[in-house]
Amino acid sequence: MGYNCDMETTAHAYRIILLDDDRFLLDMYSLKFSQGGHTVQVCLSVDEVVEAIKSGFTPDIVVFDLVMPGKDGFDLLREVQALAVSPKPVMIALTNQVTDEEKRKTQELGADAFIVKASAIPSEVVNMVVEAAAKRHKA
User: What's the whole-model pTM score?
Assistant: First the structure.
Protein backbone atom coordinates (compact mmCIF):
# COMPACT_ATOMS: atom_id res chain seq x y z
CA MET A 1 0.00 0.00 0.00
CA GLY A 2 1.57 3.30 -1.03
CA TYR A 3 0.70 6.88 -0.32
CA ASN A 4 1.55 9.64 -2.76
CA CYS A 5 1.24 13.30 -2.01
CA ASP A 6 0.94 16.25 -4.37
CA MET A 7 1.61 18.85 -1.68
CA GLU A 8 4.40 21.39 -1.87
CA THR A 9 7.67 19.51 -1.89
CA THR A 10 10.84 19.90 0.11
CA ALA A 11 14.18 20.71 -1.54
CA HIS A 12 14.28 17.10 -2.73
CA ALA A 13 11.41 14.64 -2.72
CA TYR A 14 12.51 11.12 -1.86
CA ARG A 15 11.04 7.69 -2.54
CA ILE A 16 10.80 6.04 0.88
CA ILE A 17 10.00 2.54 2.07
CA LEU A 18 8.78 2.34 5.67
CA LEU A 19 9.00 -1.08 7.33
CA ASP A 20 7.41 -1.76 10.70
CA ASP A 21 4.99 -4.31 12.10
CA ASP A 22 3.09 -1.54 13.91
CA ARG A 23 0.35 -0.27 11.55
CA PHE A 24 -0.23 2.87 13.68
CA LEU A 25 3.43 3.91 13.37
CA LEU A 26 3.44 3.15 9.64
CA ASP A 27 0.36 5.31 9.11
CA MET A 28 1.74 8.16 11.22
CA TYR A 29 5.17 8.22 9.56
CA SER A 30 3.66 7.74 6.11
CA LEU A 31 1.51 10.81 6.66
CA LYS A 32 4.46 12.85 7.97
CA PHE A 33 6.71 11.96 5.03
CA SER A 34 3.89 12.42 2.50
CA GLN A 35 3.16 15.89 3.89
CA GLY A 36 6.80 16.70 3.09
CA GLY A 37 6.25 15.78 -0.55
CA HIS A 38 7.86 12.34 -0.41
CA THR A 39 6.50 9.20 -2.07
CA VAL A 40 5.99 6.49 0.54
CA GLN A 41 5.59 2.73 0.28
CA VAL A 42 4.58 1.09 3.56
CA CYS A 43 5.49 -2.52 4.31
CA LEU A 44 4.63 -4.80 7.22
CA SER A 45 7.33 -7.40 6.52
CA VAL A 46 10.77 -7.82 5.00
CA ASP A 47 9.20 -9.90 2.22
CA GLU A 48 6.90 -6.97 1.32
CA VAL A 49 9.96 -4.69 1.03
CA VAL A 50 11.73 -7.17 -1.24
CA GLU A 51 8.58 -7.56 -3.37
CA ALA A 52 8.13 -3.78 -3.66
CA ILE A 53 11.72 -3.39 -4.88
CA LYS A 54 11.46 -6.33 -7.28
CA SER A 55 8.21 -4.82 -8.62
CA GLY A 56 10.00 -1.60 -9.56
CA PHE A 57 9.77 0.70 -6.53
CA THR A 58 13.35 1.96 -6.27
CA PRO A 59 13.69 3.62 -2.87
CA ASP A 60 16.04 6.45 -2.07
CA ILE A 61 15.56 5.63 1.62
CA VAL A 62 14.47 2.56 3.60
CA VAL A 63 13.41 3.23 7.19
CA PHE A 64 13.01 0.01 9.15
CA ASP A 65 12.44 -1.46 12.58
CA LEU A 66 14.96 -4.02 13.80
CA VAL A 67 12.51 -6.12 15.80
CA MET A 68 9.97 -7.77 13.51
CA PRO A 69 8.11 -11.07 13.61
CA GLY A 70 9.75 -13.56 11.25
CA LYS A 71 12.50 -11.79 9.34
CA ASP A 72 13.95 -8.83 11.24
CA GLY A 73 15.78 -5.64 10.33
CA PHE A 74 19.10 -7.47 10.12
CA ASP A 75 17.56 -9.82 7.53
CA LEU A 76 16.27 -6.77 5.66
CA LEU A 77 19.77 -5.28 5.44
CA ARG A 78 21.13 -8.55 4.05
CA GLU A 79 18.29 -8.97 1.54
CA VAL A 80 18.39 -5.40 0.22
CA GLN A 81 22.16 -5.70 -0.17
CA ALA A 82 21.68 -8.97 -2.09
CA LEU A 83 19.20 -7.24 -4.44
CA ALA A 84 22.00 -4.84 -5.46
CA VAL A 85 19.62 -1.90 -5.77
CA SER A 86 21.26 0.92 -7.67
CA PRO A 87 21.73 3.49 -6.43
CA LYS A 88 21.94 1.95 -2.97
CA PRO A 89 19.18 3.35 -0.75
CA VAL A 90 19.97 5.11 2.50
CA MET A 91 19.19 2.50 5.18
CA ILE A 92 17.95 3.88 8.51
CA ALA A 93 17.06 1.77 11.52
CA LEU A 94 14.18 3.32 13.48
CA THR A 95 13.83 1.18 16.55
CA ASN A 96 13.71 1.02 20.32
CA GLN A 97 16.61 -1.45 20.37
CA VAL A 98 19.57 0.46 21.73
CA THR A 99 22.38 -1.93 22.64
CA ASP A 100 25.87 -1.17 21.38
CA GLU A 101 25.99 -4.65 19.84
CA GLU A 102 22.84 -4.00 17.79
CA LYS A 103 24.14 -0.62 16.64
CA ARG A 104 27.43 -2.20 15.61
CA LYS A 105 25.67 -5.02 13.78
CA THR A 106 23.37 -2.63 11.86
CA GLN A 107 26.40 -0.59 10.76
CA GLU A 108 28.33 -3.69 9.72
CA LEU A 109 25.35 -4.78 7.61
CA GLY A 110 25.22 -1.40 5.85
CA ALA A 111 22.84 0.80 7.83
CA ASP A 112 23.57 4.50 7.41
CA ALA A 113 21.86 5.70 10.59
CA PHE A 114 20.25 4.47 13.79
CA ILE A 115 17.35 6.41 15.34
CA VAL A 116 15.80 5.46 18.68
CA LYS A 117 12.00 5.81 18.40
CA ALA A 118 11.53 6.76 22.03
CA SER A 119 14.05 9.61 21.87
CA ALA A 120 12.58 11.58 18.95
CA ILE A 121 9.17 12.97 18.06
CA PRO A 122 7.88 12.14 14.54
CA SER A 123 8.83 15.50 13.00
CA GLU A 124 12.40 15.07 14.32
CA VAL A 125 12.54 11.57 12.84
CA VAL A 126 11.44 12.92 9.45
CA ASN A 127 14.10 15.66 9.63
CA MET A 128 16.84 13.18 10.61
CA VAL A 129 15.89 10.80 7.78
CA VAL A 130 15.80 13.57 5.16
CA GLU A 131 19.13 14.98 6.42
CA ALA A 132 20.79 11.56 6.20
CA ALA A 133 19.55 11.17 2.64
CA ALA A 134 20.64 14.70 1.68
CA LYS A 135 24.18 14.01 2.97
CA ARG A 136 24.39 10.85 0.86
CA HIS A 137 23.12 12.60 -2.27
CA LYS A 138 25.65 15.46 -1.85
CA ALA A 139 28.55 13.00 -1.65
Answer: 0.89
Q: Do the beta carbons of residue 68 and residue 21 sit within 8 Å? A: yes
Sign of the four-CA dihedral 114, 119, 122, 124: negative
Residue 28's pLDDT is 95
Name the 3-class secondary structure at 67.
coil
Between the CA of residue 76 and those of 17, 34, 127, what are the distances in Å? 12, 23, 23
As a whole number, the mean pLDDT across the chain is 89
CB neighbour burial string for 103-124, b if at least 16 within 10 angstroms, e if fewer:
bebbeebebbbbbebeeeeeee
pLDDT recorded at residue 12? 84
Which residue from 65, 51, 72 is spatially nearest to 23, judged by alpha carbons?
A: 65
Per-residue pLDDT, 99: 87
* Averaged pLDDT for residues 37-62: 96
Instruction: Report the C-alpha gap between 13 and 39 in whole angstroms.
Output: 7
Rounded Cα–Cα distance for residues 43 and 1 (Å): 7
